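Reopening this ticket.

The earlier resolution said the output was attached, but the attachment link was broken on my side. Pasting everything inline this time so it's all in one place.
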Amino acid sequence: MSEKNCFGKCHPVVQMIYWLVILLTTVFLMHPVFLGVSFLGAFLLGIRQKGIKKVLWVYVCKTVPFFLLIACINPAFNHYGVTELFRLKTGPVTLEAIVYGLVLAFVLYISVLWFSSFHEIMTTDRFVYLFGKLSPDISLVLSMAMRFVPRFTKQLKKIRMGQQCIGRDMEGQSILKKVCMGIREISMLLTWGLESGIDTADSMRARGYGTVKRTAYSVFSWTKQDKKILLILFICYGIVLLGISQGYAYALYDPIIQIAGVPLTAKSLLCYLAWAVCCLLPVGADWI
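Inline output:
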């Protein structure tokens, strides 16, 4: 997707500014409207990148139950709030604690969706371009770390397939047998990782890494599209910040639930629409 969508072709600086704005706002604001719009933007971008079937299977069927479990943990151990629903051995379960647990799980879920899209677009070369001049060593380590997880996942699938071909399939095995087979696969994976690291270090040394000061070469250049997207982002987020300063993003869940912006006014609606434009910017970049 990164090369099919206009936002995927944008300058790395524009993309990094965008991710910082969206992620920080999503994490620090607990307002339902802001979270709902952020989820919509992340979900549509995920569909644009991976297709609706993969998004529904991986990020809904597989992931949502885990975050619902996280949401249930909060009211079981935190008993703040004034609206008591029922009691457990650990104490009262309140409406406020349940709602806040759902909100926290939703924030974490949306962040995972955005980070997944971030990983698709912010490739290693873009990351090195952004931070290579500031700190080449840290930039190299971070770019290699970003590549580390998908490589290990791909290699683990190969190892598992090889084990199945020699009759070591986990299907139908006991829990103890599955654990032993899993430990064997992880051991193979770690061995491969160590060997791969040694090969990478030898290759870098052979290419003269660290012998002299490196020069930087960039294939990225600023375009009119970058300036338009950045201008729209700054204008819309400026409106959002103004709305936040007016209290339209205020949300309280302890001891009572208080949500600002209800009922809607013209100013609060403008703030929410500006935030919607920010979140939907990558999807709508083709029409700018």
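Reporter confirms the inline version is readable. The longest helix spans residues 175-206. The radius of gyration is 23 Å.
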